[in-house]
Structure formats: C-alpha cells, structure tokens
Amino acid sequence: MKILITCFLVMAAFVTAYNATAAEVGDGVATKPAPPESYQIRNVKYGDLLRPQDANGADGTRIVLYPGQLWKCMTWKMYPAGESLYQLQNHFTGKTFIPKTAGAGTALVQVPFGPVAKDRPNWRFTKLADGSYQIEDPKSGNALTATDSPDGTVRIVLAPWKELPEQKWELLKTDPATLTM
C-alpha cells in the first residue's frame, strides 16, 4: 500500500511539473516575460537624465531632469509590455510614473509599480530617424516633454508631439552593478 501511495504522489508531482512547464511554453517556444534591461533616459535638449525630484521615494513626487550620474535614482528598468511598449521602474525608489491628471501639459508623478503587469502604466518608445526616441503615453497620445519651471528645475509633462528637442530622448544602457546611491 505504501508503494502505491508513493507512486501516486510521484505521478502527481510529475503531472504538476509538466502542466507548469506547458503553461510557460507554447509551440516549443518559451513565453516567460523577458527580463528587464536597465537604462538612463537622457533628454536631447537639456542633456540631463529623468528621475524623481530630489530622489524622493514618496508617491506624487514630480519627475524631473537632473545632471547625469551613475545613480540608481536616474536609472530605469524597462519591462517589455508589447510592441514598442515598456513599463518603467526606477532602480532607487522601485516606483514608476503616470500623468498627474488627464490632458496635455499635465505633470508626471511617481506612483507604486504594481504587482500585476496589466495594471501598470505602459509607455510607447518610437525610435526616430536621428536615433533618439519619442516616449508616448499610449492612452492620450501625448509625449514626454521637458519644460522649464519657475523653481529652476526642468519638469516632465505630457504634451502633443511636435518633434521638438525637449520631446526627444536617448536611451543609455546601464549595468545596474555600476550604480551608486
């Protein structure tokens, strides 16, 4: 009887493992999500990098530009989310960003990077002829745009695409092992 129960348990474990593998592989090709790559995102006009203001981890913190450093707060994990779509997660805060309100001219603010991929914001990265990227909110069609603010910072807002240097971005592939702070 013990041998029969042991055989049954081994068979059940095998079937469970097989089903888990079958769920991950379709037509012999693995369907697990690709691991994220890490990039610093530099604005073409200003030459500075995207980051949460003052490297603050609080929800609602504005997204701004800051002179480049190999800091975690200036580096983003890019998770593939579809054709030209990515979900961004800051290495330092572990958060992402969204438009504060709907419509053009709205500021981008930091929010939690949710546990469920389908609930996270997506950003469309379109490579331009000059090698830079347009980064667009697929919901509104507006593009990430760097703009001067009265307090002297360069803030990031959404604005209609006009092919301006403040709307163009360069991706700098970054090894997370080299980051400080």
Q: How would you portray this structure in words?
A:
With 181 residues, the chain is mainly β. The protein has 2 domains: 1-32; 37-176, Trefoil (Acidic Fibroblast Growth Factor, subunit A). It is 13% helix and 38% strand. It has 1 helix and 14 strands. It has one helix at 2-24, and strands at 25-26, 29-30, 37-43, 49-52, 63-66, 76-82, 85-90, 95-99, 108-112, 123-127, 133-136, 143-148, 154-159, 168-173. The strands form 5 sheets. A 6-stranded antiparallel β-barrel has the order 3-6-7-10-11-14. Strand 12 and strand 13 form a beta hairpin. The longest helix is centred in the first third of the chain and has 23 residues, at 2-24. Residues 4-31 have low confidence and may be disordered.
Question: What is the topology, as strand order, of the major beta sheet?
Answer: 3-6-7-10-11-14
Q: Examine the coordinates and then state which fold CATH places here, giving the name of the CATH topology of the largest domain.
A: Trefoil (Acidic Fibroblast Growth Factor, subunit A)
Fraction of helical residues = 10-25%
The biggest beta sheet, please? 6 strands, antiparallel, barrel
Element-level helix/strand string: HEEEEEEEEEEEEEE
Q: What's the number of helices?
A: 1
Number of strands: 14
User: For the record, what CATH class of the largest domain applies?
Assistant: Mainly Beta
Q: Supply Rg.
A: 21 Å
Name of the CATH architecture of the largest domain: Trefoil
Shape: globular
How many domains in all?
2
Based on helices, strands and strand pairing, what is the structural class? mainly beta
Average pLDDT level: 85
Q: How far apart lie the N and C ends?
A: 61 Å
Sheet-strand content, in percent, reads 35-45%
Low-confidence stretches: 4-31
